[in-house]
Every structure is written in structure tokens, then in C-alpha cells.
Design a protein that fits this description.
This protein is α+β, with helices and mostly antiparallel strands. It has seven helices and 17 strands. The two termini are 40 Å apart.
Length: 462
């Protein structure tokens, strides 16, 4: 098992200054760079997709045609997120990541090695001299993927724990998660090849449910935010600001890319594994709807991926304000991992707070830690928007430049944890604003067996 600590060559270098936030395209219900780092088309997947599992699709809240009319209140209502309860949170940071020669080369080398391992495995099977040898090699390789999934899960747990103990810098932690993501995606490619080879081997088969379960497990080791971090490492995307939070075997990541807020959360505490009986796809959809009532009310279509013997089921819901990909555990019958995609033009901000100084009016339309907050700067003299540099940082601490407000005087960025200070600088004019983030509208509350928000519910959706 690979240790969490990495050599100095694997270090990320994070800038203290935030660069432009690159685009995040959307695919699979979830979107992230593909295995080779390219951006997939709308018909491709964002994370490993277990084709052997059985997908179903249902349109609209009751099936049939897509929903066109929803409760007007749902259009403005709060959208829940899978969050780490505040009592369980161990650490959170908000930093900018960009490519650096040493770390980029190390990352590319590691992902190339994984790709070569797949090619070697396929070549060994295809060149087997006898059918018996081919079958033996196939079984060995499938078992090997299952063992590597266990190793990747352990690596993630170790990295989360080390980061939470402040033993792993944010850049090292992001590197490790991005590498786990890349290796999981490569293993999914290998799984696909092995399934095809198994089908073409006379007198031999491996259960499609086994291949499907492998794919679902690889899904839970990937994510759109860590996948994008990998693109930054490879130099295929510009720098971006990443929010990182951990808890006991839990991690939340978020980023804003090309007008879309993207969030992923994994909570190991909500995984129980084997259920007492079969867990149907319909039950997985129902569990997701109960966890995300606003998303369910705004749903346009959904599809599920899994089988009755799976430890988890993937539920994707397209809705009027974005997209949700939820993984439901068959034992706990709760969502233990989510991806959320929220176009900023569909974000409903919460209560606002403002400060006025030097003829500048700075307003923060608040959100929860790691969520998208909109900053607005206007002239108090004319009311016109002001294009100025914005910095964000802890009160009394070191701030980082997060961008400019532009011609419309508006800038979206990620909210840090705890009270933070926003500063707008326009020539010799400076205005400072202290902002307290709102409570996280958590799917499950302060303890694992409860429901509701983690703290006081906010009045508007995000």
C-alpha cells in the first residue's frame, strides 16, 4: 500500500494569488476531465461508469414526459448539499492551485505508468497461448483491480486523516486526491477492456454484476473537482481556487469554473456496506429524493445505475437549477457521496451584508463555507458598478487576490470557513467588509442518524 507521504518532486505549488477560474464542462450527469485529461462531450462520462450495471431512466417527477411546471417556491427554495457536520470537521482551507514543473511531471509520470499497466495486462491476455491461460489471466486481472480499489480507498483514508491532523499541506492533499482520481479512471478503462475480453473468450464468463460493482466502487474514488485538479497539474487548465474540508473519513471539495459551481463530498461514515436484503433502484431514487426535496421538486429527468446486489447505487438527477449525482449506500440507505453542478446564473444567494467607504459600496451576497458567494461593488455617488481588485482573507490575517469585479461590478468566488474579510481597492479608494458565512444546508444534520441542516437553516437556496 502506497504511503501518503510523497517525495518533494510530487509537491504542488499553490499561488497566493487566484488566477482565472477555468471552465468546467458537464457530462454524465457529472462532468470532469476524462482519463486523458480532455474535456468529455455531453454524451461521455465524468467519472468511471460501470456499464455492466443496469441503468434506468425516468423523466419528470412521475415518469413519462419531462416536468415543465414545478412549485414556484421550489424555484427559490434551499438546495441541500451533502456536508460534513461541524462537530466532525477537522480542517478546511481555501487556496489556489496551478501547475509547477516538478509536480506536473511527477503526476504525468504516475498516470502514464497506470496506462502502461493496462496495456501490458491486455497484451498478456490477448497473447495467451491457450484458452485456459487466457481465462486464468482474466481472473487475475479482475481480482487485481478489486485489490487496487481497496488500496486506493486506504490511501484516501490515510490522506484525509493526515490532512486533518495538519500533517499534509493542502497542495499535497489535492495532489494525492487527483492522483487517486486518475488511477481510478485508468482502472475503469482497464475494467472495460477486461469485460470485452471476457465476453470474447469461448466458454468463459465473469458476472456482469461483478464488473458493475467494480465500476461503481471506482466511481466513488473519482470526482469532478479532483479530476479538474489533475487537469491543472497536467498544465491543461489554468489555476483555480479550491475549497477543501475534511472530517473523519470524509472530504468536501469545491471549485468555480466557467460560470459553474462544482462541489463533491464523500462521507465514509454513511457507508455500511451489505444491506439486510436487496436494495432496489427505486429505493435508491426514493432515498435521494428524501435527502434533496428541492431538487426532486425541480427534477427534469433522472437515471439510476446499479443492481440489487450492489453495495451502492448511483442516482443522477437533472433539475432546473443544475445537476446532482448521488451515491446511495445499500446498508444505510443514505447518500454517502455527491457531485453537484450549479450554474451561477441559477444560484439563489442568501442574505446580504454591505459596507460603505471612500464612495464605494461593497456587498456580499452570502453563502455557506465552500459555497459560491457573489460580491458586488458600486459607486455611492452614481450607483454605477465599479471594476476593482478584490481580496479575501481571514479577519486580521493574510488576504489573497481573488479577481476583479469587472464591468458589471460583480465577482463570484468561494466562501471560506469562519468570518472573513473582503477588501475592494479602486485606486486610492478602499472599502473593507467583514462577512460571516451562512449555515451549511446539509442533507443530514449534526449527527449521522439525523436529518436537517447543520445549524440554523438559511432562508434562500444556493
Amino acid at each position: 500500500m502506497r504511503a501518503v507521504s510523497l517525495s518533494l518532486a510530487l509537491l504542488l505549488v499553490l499561488s497566493a494569488v487566484v488566477g482565472a477560474v477555468p471552465a468546467l464542462s458537464d457530462a454524465d450527469g457529472a462532468s470532469a476531465p476524462s482519463i486523458d485529461g480532455s474535456t468529455p462531450s455531453a454524451s461521455s462520462v465524468s467519472a468511471p461508469v460501470p456499464s455492466a450495471a443496469q441503468p434506468t431512466e425516468r423523466l419528470g417527477p412521475g415518469g413519462g414526459t419531462p416536468a415543465q411546471v414545478v412549485d414556484a417556491n421550489a424555484s427559490e427554495a434551499q438546495i441541500n448539499v451533502l456536508g460534513i457536520p461541524s462537530a466532525e470537521s477537522t480542517r478546511s482551507t481555501l487556496e489556489t492551485e496551478y501547475v509547477e514543473l516538478g509536480s506536473g511531471l511527477a503526476f504525468s509520470s504516475a498516470t502514464t505508468d497506470a496506462h502502461l499497466a493496462t496495456a501490458t495486462a491486455v497484451e498478456r491476455i490477448e497473447s495467451a497461448e491457450t484458452t485456459e491461460a487466457r481465462q486464468r489471466y482474466l481472473l487475475q486481472e479482475v481480482s487485481g483491480i478489486e485489490q487496487q480499489i481497496v488500496a486506493l480507498r486506504a490511501r484516501q483514508q490515510q490522506a484525509v486523516a493526515a490532512y486533518g491532523r495538519d500533517e499534509l499541506p493542502p497542495r499535497r492533499f489535492l495532489y494525492e486526491l487527483a492522483l487517486i482520481d486518475a488511477e481510478a479512471r485508468e482502472l475503469e478503462q482497464r475494467r472495460d477492456r477486461l469485460e470485452s475480453l471476457a465476453r470474447s473468450t469461448p466458454g468463459f464468463s465473469i458476472s456482469s454484476a461483478r464488473f458493475g460493482n467494480i465500476g461503481l466502487e471506482l466511481n466513488t474514488l473519482s470526482g469532478p473537482v479532483r479530476g479538474y485538479a489533475g487537469s491543472v497539474l497536467r498544465g491543461e487548465a489554468a489555476s483555480a481556487r479550491f475549497y477543501v474540508q475534511t472530517g473523519a473519513d470524509s472530504v468536501t471539495l469545491s471549485v468555480i469554473r466557467d460560470g459553474t459551481y462544482v462541489r463533491e463530498t464523500y462521507r465514509g461514515a454513511l457507508r455500511q456496506g451489505d444491506s439486510s436484503g436487496p436494495f432496489s433502484l427505486a429505493e435508491a431514487v426514493n432515498a435521494t429524493e428524501q435527502a434533496y426535496p428541492t431538487i426532486a421538486a425541480l427534477r427534469l429527468r433522472d437515471d439510476t445505475l446499479g443492481n440489487p446486489d450492489s453495495d451502492s447505487t448511483r442516482v443522477t438527477i437533472e433539475h432546473q437549477r443544475g445537476r446532482l449525482v448521488a451515491f446511495v449506500d445499500s446498508g444505510s440507505q443514505r447518500v454517502f457521496e455527491e457531485y453537484q453542478y450549479r450554474p451561477l446564473d441559477q444560484v439563489r444567494t442568501g442574505s446580504s451584508t454591505s459596507a460603505v467607504k471612500d464612495a464605494l459600496n461593497l456587498t456580499a451576497h452570502r453563502t455557506y463555507p465552500g459555497g459560491p458567494v457573489r460580491l458586488q461593488l458600486n459607486s455611492t455617488t452614481t450607483g454605477d458598478p465599479v471594476d476593482a481588485q478584490i481580496t479575501v482573507g481571514p479577519a486580521g490575517g493574510r488576504s489573497s487576490v481573488v479577481g476583479r469585479t469587472g464591468e458589471d461590478g460583480s465577482l463570484w468566488t468561494l466562501a471560506p470557513s469562519g468570518t472573513y474579510q473582503v477588501t475592494a481597492i479602486d485606486g486610492s479608494s478602499v472599502v473593507l467588509l467583514s462577512v460571516e458565512p451562512t449555515a451549511t444546508p446539509s442533507v443530514y444534520g449534526p449527527v449521522n442518524n439525523s436529518t436537517g441542516s447543520d445549524g440554523t437553516a438559511t432562508t434562500a437556496g444556493f
